[in-house]
Amino acid sequence: MIEQYISKSIKCKCGKVHKSRVESIEINDNAIDTDLIAFLKANKYRSLTVVCDKNGYKAAGKMVCGTLEKTDIQYKLHLFHNDFLAPDEYAIGNLAMGIFGESDIIVAVGSGTVNDVCRYVSAVAGKEFCTVGTAPSMDGYISGSSALIYNNLKLTFETHPPKAVFFEPTILANAPRNMISSGVGDLLGKINCLCDWKLSNIINGEWYCDFISGIVSDAVWKTIDCCDGLIRGDSESAAVLLEALLLSGVCMDFAGNSRPASGCEHHISHFWEMRFLLEGRKAVFHGTKVGIGTVIALKAYEYVSALNPDFKAIRNKPRMSFDEWENNVHKAFLGASNEIIELEKKSGKNDIEKLDTRLSVIEENWDKIKALASDAAKPEIISSILKRLKAPITPAEIGVEKELAKQAIIYAKEIRDRYTVLQLLWDLGELDSFAETVVNEYYKMY
């Protein structure tokens, strides 16, 4: 299915020409021994840096190195020894200092963090990179951007996609169960992010593409049908999940940004990731947090679908001053607050004049907005899928306390200049009430 979208241009009804920059995707049982080596030789790469962490080395790195030993291609293994590798300044600097100087290409062996770090360093160093994936755990394998932690804040840096990616279904199926459920969580997030994208199209006139949205949606529901196979550890089902995640990456390339793959469910995940890092807590897989954030986001759409707003009262409702907002941001974002404040100064998401303009559009289009909210997937559907995979469905299950859960719902919208259902609830003066409702539901047993 994915082959029809790569290495070609597609003239779309939306008015744009879509193109994916990745040149080759190989998903088969000989991807390492045969396809990787053929790719390296065809492109005349004579020296490489193979990059992985300890888990990636066990999963596929040792196999990659063993395969290279049988060729005349020179390589250096750069192994991260951290028990947990964060995509931060340390990892970037560590790899930058350890690259084999004559390397023609960097070979990333692993999943999310290793790929983001290799993507960034290779782009800055002016080198190509390719990927040997070890788990269907996230959607960023063929992305043209890196999600990195800089000054304690999760930011997206435009870089470049890999030249090629290689996956063996057996390796994917043997990935830890929590990594597979993380991949499903990341994929389920697309159900919400497509709603957020359409919502912004209605309210802000943001460009929206039915073709791209359809590709992502079809891939998500096809994977949901394979959940029983994923539970059994079936390699074909693992390949279906991976292809769906890769299609999400292709669609980001088509769109030129992450709109088809990331909405407020990701912003909630980023908020918790940032706070866990700042507080020295053990990290939780990205897709695991996204799955929980997706349930919350769909609860938000359910909440919106039940509203009958009094727009006159909303316009007259007192709003928090910038100084009050800034004080709360310092409390919520701790050491990353200055970047959030600067983003708001540039974007003015909470500016009263911009709010008044949006409210006029929201009022005019309320029937469309309410229909979108009513048609959104029910949060119970996502919860039931995650339960089948034994994945967490509530913030408490990953160690998020009631106050931190509430802060995420209220302040996650500040992480990106991107319109989502959480911004809509703020516009309607309902965000605090929604947050209170959700956390009371989640933490009623505490």
Brief synopsis:
This protein has 446 residues and is α/β, with parallel strands linked by helices. It contains 20 helices and 10 strands.
Termini separation comes to: 47 Å
CATH fold-type name of the largest domain? Dehydroquinate synthase-like, alpha domain
Domain tally: 2
The stretches of 5 or more residues where confidence is low (pLDDT under 50) are none
Instruction: Tell me the name of the CATH class of the largest domain.
Output: Mainly Alpha
CATH architecture of the largest domain: Up-down Bundle
How can the largest sheet be summarized?
6 strands, parallel
Radius of gyration: 22 Å
List its salient traits.
6-stranded parallel sheet; two-stranded antiparallel ribbon; 446 residues; 20 helices; Dehydroquinate synthase-like, alpha domain; single chain; alpha/beta; Rossmann fold
